[in-house]
Amino acid sequence: MRRRILAVCTALSTVVGAAVVALGVTVSAAPPALALDNGLAKTPPMGFNNWNSTHCSGTFNEGMVKGIADLFVSSGLKAAGYQYVNIDDCWAEPTRDSSGNLVPNRTRFPNGIKAVADYVHGKGLKFGLYSSAGIKTCNGTGGFPGGLGHERQDAALWASWGVDYLKYDNCNNQGVDAKQRYTAMRDALAATGRPITYSLCEWGQNKPWTWASNVGNLWRTTGDINDSYAKMLSIFKANVKLDAFAGPGHWNDPDMLEVGNGKMSDTEYRSHFSLWSIMSAPLLIGSDIRKASSATMTILENTDVIAVDQDTLGVQGKEISSANGLHVITKPLAGGDRAVALFNETGSSATISTSASAVGARSASSWQLTDLWSKATRSTTGTISAKVPAHGTVIYRVHAVPAPSAVTEG
Ligand code: GLA
């Protein structure tokens, strides 16, 4: 029933383009167009991308990609939901061959890209690649060949290699209209007949959340992240405002994770992971997990937090207060629970308080709060409050007890 009510509200808001109040919580206006009809990314993509840990350095090569795929299986990351092993810029030779085809870098990928994709597939995982909607990619001396004007040829080649995911960047775009460039690649990918998750990476420059829900499965909302609390914080603040535009098959992308890269504290990395999850962001691991500490793996494999990100309702969490750097974000979950993140942006510990009704929890006389990091549970008659360390986040699952008998699951 509840799911049906939400579906009706979503449909209604698509029609009228207005905010709708459902079950005590404002469900913001839906995006202007239907989601891309490729059936992919019904929940935010999860996986790995090498960029944040390697950039173009020599450690980015076939051995690394295979090692990550091995580790996905052996370390439990695959079981936790991570699926894509994606490679970023610098995988290609600087020039196309005489037929105009892209050529894998002979040093990094001596056996080609298909061999790597086959290896990844052999582990029951999916493989992703990178290009740019320009004449050159973003990095290397002068960049590597981009897809602008080569969309059909490149997409066909990638499909023949077994590519399952494309990150399509924005460098060297010659001033051609973004919608036109990204739509051309959408159509080229569709023409291959292979399901390929399509990630737009134009850094939010053309407000893709206003036009890309039927172009790509996800779109970057900001410039590049780096391994610093300040940058993670500023990206969070920009991305959290865009909750109205995300949904199954079309997500806001605040960029890849920095968890484990070493320049933030574990408290800050837990905030990063919690905030990305409550914002229904893609969870693409950006550290070289072959060298990960156990603290890093514990963060990345927190399946309770991952479940918030991957919830099938597909609603991005909404910030309901942020006074004095004390943020409260709430996200409705399938089955009627709520996730609530209490994030302390400031440099000193602080108590952050809200209530079951303010976060839109089902009406009840008491609620069970499960702390998704400590796993502690407690009961409340309404107040949801925690002492949160500097730069820290407490994230709860709020469950109404007992479930109201009038509401049955649809
Ligand atoms: C851009 C993107 C990054 C990365 C690099 C590669 O900066 O935003 O995520 O792909 O290009 O050169």
Keywords, separated by commas or semicolons:
single chain; 410 residues; alpha/beta; TIM Barrel; Immunoglobulin-like; 8-stranded parallel β-sheet; 6-stranded antiparallel β-sheet; 27% helix; binds alpha-D-galactopyranose
Structural summary, described in words:
This protein is an alpha/beta fold and 410 residues long. The chain folds into two domains: 46-309, Alpha-Beta Barrel (TIM Barrel); 318-400, Sandwich (Immunoglobulin-like), CATH 2.60.40.1180. The protein is 27% helix and 21% strand. The chain contains eleven helices and 18 strands. It has helices at 2-16, 51-54, 62-74, 77-80, 112-122, 151-161, 178-192, 229-240, 266-278, 294-300, 303-309; strands at 20-22, 25-27, 46-49, 84-86, 126-132, 165-169, 197-200, 218-220, 251-253, 283-285, 318-321, 326-332, 338-344, 350-355, 366-371, 377-380, 383-388, 393-401. Strand 5, helix 6 (151-161) and strand 6 form a beta-alpha-beta unit. Helix 6 (151-161) crosses helix 7 (178-192) and helix 9 (266-278) packs parallel to helix 10 (294-300). The longest helix is centred in the N-terminal third of the chain and has 15 residues, at 2-16. Mean pLDDT is 92; it is low at 1-32. It binds alpha-D-galactopyranose (GLA). The site of alpha-D-galactopyranose has 9 residues, from loops.
How far is the first residue's CA from the last residue's CA?
4 Å
In the CATH scheme, the class of the largest domain would be Alpha Beta
Largest sheet: 8 strands, parallel
Question: Rough shape?
Answer: globular
The proportion of residues forming helix, as a percent range, comes to: 25-40%
Structural class: alpha/beta
CATH superfamily of the largest domain: Aldolase class I
Which hetero ligands occur in this complex?
alpha-D-galactopyranose
CATH architecture of the largest domain: Alpha-Beta Barrel
Query: What is the strand arrangement across the widest sheet?
Result: 9-8-7-6-5-4-3-10
Stretches where pLDDT falls below 50 for ≥5 residues? 1-32
How is the CATH topology of the largest domain named?
TIM Barrel
Number of extended strands: 18
The average pLDDT score comes to 92
Radius of gyration: 21 Å
Query: What is the N-to-C succession of helices and strands?
Result: HEEEHHHEHEHEHEEHEHEHHEEEEEEEE
Number of H/I helices: 11
Residue fraction in strands: 15-25%
